Amino acid sequence: MFFKKKKPEAPDSVNEKNLEDKELIPANKEDFIQRMKDLFHHSADLNIKELPNGFTLLYLDTMTDNTLINVDILRQLEGIQASPDEAYKKITVGSVSKMKYIEDSIKKALKGSVLVHSQGFPVLIEASVGTQENRSLTRPENESQVLGPQIAFNESLATNISLIRRYIANPNVCNESFTLGTQTNAAVSLLYIKHIADDEMVDRMRERIQKIEIDSVIDSSILVQLVEDNSFAIFPQLLMTERPDRACSWLLNGKVAVLVDGSVQVIGAPLSFFEFFQSMEDESVRWQIGTFLRILRVFSMVVSVFFTAIYVAALTFHYEIIPQTLLIPLGESRSLVPFPPIIEALLLEGMIELLREAGARLPTKVGQTMGIVGGIVVGTAAVDAGFTSNILIIIIAVSALASFTTPNYMMGNVIRILRFPLIILAGFWGFYGLMIGFCFLLIHLIRQTSMGVPFMTPFYPPRFADWRDSIFRLPIAWTNKRPYQTRPVDSRKFQTKKTKE
């Protein structure tokens, strides 16, 4: 890993270190105000109000709700003695607590709290009045589907947790809170269901989160790279989703979910390779259709990765595998192409990737036009100019379409990249090079783990009981047990006999 981890310390030593290092709240009002101004570097949005009865309020204008401050704090503190106990009783905000250390109070102020200081007391009253400027709930953009719930997570951690609790109204849903990033102090939540999730797996995820020492965690995509098993692997070992129903499905199967404040993506662990080709819509259709769609996605992945490489290997070294009736039109199509098949394929694959990236970065309407018009114009011009053949245009188009069937964006990017080294291997050594690349990929996948669980489960190691909900999707009445990969405490979902009745 490219980040440092804290060494585990005994609980007693941690407490002693905190007591020695943390700075206490100054009892004197002037000292308190000056100290806070220095710590906030005299920021323009730092607001300090000194009340006649001895109270001092400190807060950030840009992070707090002025209406709550006026009604629930200022009005309640009028005419009472300047005492922390009195302020604690009178303030009507929902979240109120006492604080003794400067560091803790600074973190609360940055999250939208008002700090109430009483003259002569080394204690602060913290009242949470942060603004709730959240984006409204919308439809999923990256995991859209026809059937099932049409709602997605947003950037608010509290809203995302509430969505999960609405789906799973169960007191056993545990929520553990962490703070990551020495500069950002991002709130992170670890969710799991007690008596279903394996304690060892929960401890492993908790330990990895606690040991991270980094200056910022802006998004779940950053955190997922810090907690995964192998950061050098090209394949993602943890899955992210923007759908609450999928996150709840993970929890009900004995997995854990990690949420980051400010991120719309929720991390699930552990995951297997074949779960990247599953969609929540598979559960909403008949089991025959769900199985067909999953097999189609896996087949499309194979086609997208190997189709162009097979074309290059066949034209370069293995003409004997091409049917006789196809040799003549293939030869005529390539008669004007001045490049060998490997250069031709790499050139066209590169142009397709340029069009795809340009379409993704441009505004939506312009990007769609760029993708369609650009593909037609570039493809037609390349064939007319003799840079490529008609057959390769068809093969590249089929490979590109097949890559879009992958429901997960991260796995789709991996499939796009894998085509290039396989084309190079096929261009230099034909099917022998292609087989070397395939074996390398297979060995690489078999060696990977996700939170200590084999990445290719349930096919390696073979867990035949889990095949019923992997590439295949058998009837719901047959999927009465949770996946073995999570080692759930309660492995049974329901009684099969009663469900069939």
Produce the secondary structure layout.
Layout (H helix, E strand, L loop, with lengths): L3 E2 L5 H11 L7 H11 L6 E5 L4 E6 L5 H12 L6 H7 L5 E4 L2 H9 L2 E6 L5 E5 L28 H11 L5 E8 L5 E8 L5 H12 L1 E2 L6 H8 L11 E3 L2 H9 L3 E5 L5 E4 L17 H30 L7 H11 L6 H21 L2 H22 L4 H14 L5 H39 L1 E2 L2 E2 L41 H5 L1
Antiparallel strand pairs: 1-9, 2-3, 3-5, 4-6, 5-6, 7-8, 8-11, 10-12, 11-12, 13-14
How would you characterize this protein structure?
This protein is α+β, with helices and mostly antiparallel strands. It folds into 3 domains: 4-128, no CATH class; 157-271, no CATH class; 283-453, no CATH class. 46% of the residues lie in helices and 12% in strands. It is built from 16 helices and 14 strands. The chain has helices at residues 11-21, 29-39, 66-77, 84-90, 102-110, 157-167, 199-210, 220-227, 244-252, 287-316, 324-334, 341-361, 364-385, 390-403, 409-447, 496-500; strands at 4-5, 46-50, 55-60, 96-99, 113-118, 124-128, 173-180, 186-193, 212-213, 239-241, 256-260, 266-269, 449-450, 453-454. It has a 5-stranded antiparallel sheet with strand order 2-3-5-6-4, with helices on both faces. β7 and β8 form a beta hairpin. α10 (287-316) packs antiparallel against α14 (390-403). It is elongated, with a radius of gyration of 29 Å. It starts with a strand and ends with a helix. 31% of the residues are buried. The model is unreliable at 1-19 (pLDDT under 50).
